[in-house]
Design a protein that fits this description.
Helix content: 10-25%
Structural class: mainly beta
Largest sheet: 6 strands, antiparallel
Low-confidence stretches: 11-33
Strand content: over 45%
Length: about 160
């Protein structure tokens, strides 16, 4: 091999190396999502008595490029917090049941409101009265955990 061909080969290899990123591509799906683009708005909490239950309502907007899942909710004011849905049974009786792992498609909103999806705060650690505020942690599979402070209101105006 001539000196000239060797130099062309070396230069070509250096050029290809320089054009590559130098690191392996990460296949973690969290990397494809823009953090901080899931927004929690219009939140409020119903009043409740210690040892009893309360409900949380809000809008969750997924402004990311991928769908995300609300995997868990928690709050220091209750022993448990769960996403629930209201329903009407075959006999016409209304009820509530757990509705875990709520998927929010990219660009969509999830409405948690009276008579529909909502968060139940179960076994309150203290009384919640209008004027109080409650901190709720929302854990999403893609974008992580977001914490929001919401006012306690008798009803949303």
């Amino acid at each position: 091999m001539s000196w000239h061909r060797l130099m062309v080969l070396i230069c070509s290899l250096l050029f290809l190396y320089a054009c590559s990123s130098g690191k392996e591509q990460d296949t973690n799906p969290k990397e494809d999502v823009i953090p901080g683009k899931v927004e929690l708005s219009d939140g409020w909490v119903r009043p409740g008595s210690k040892g009893m239950m309360s409900a949380v309502y809000l809008t969750i907007s997924n402004g990311t490029a991928k769908r995300d899942t609300l995997a868990e909710v928690s709050s220091d004011v209750a022993k448990r917090a769960e996403v629930h849905e209201s329903y009407k049974g075959e006999n016409g009786m209304s009820g509530m049941r757990p509705a875990p792992n709520r998927i929010i498609e990219a660009g969509e909103e999830l409405y948690l409101q009276p008579g529909g999806l909502h968060i139940m705060l179960i076994s309150l650690n203290k009384d919640l009265v209008p004027g109080d505020s409650v901190e709720i942690d929302f854990s999403f599979k893609q974008t992580g955990t977001k914490t929001v402070r919401m006012p306690v209101k008798a009803q949303n105006p």
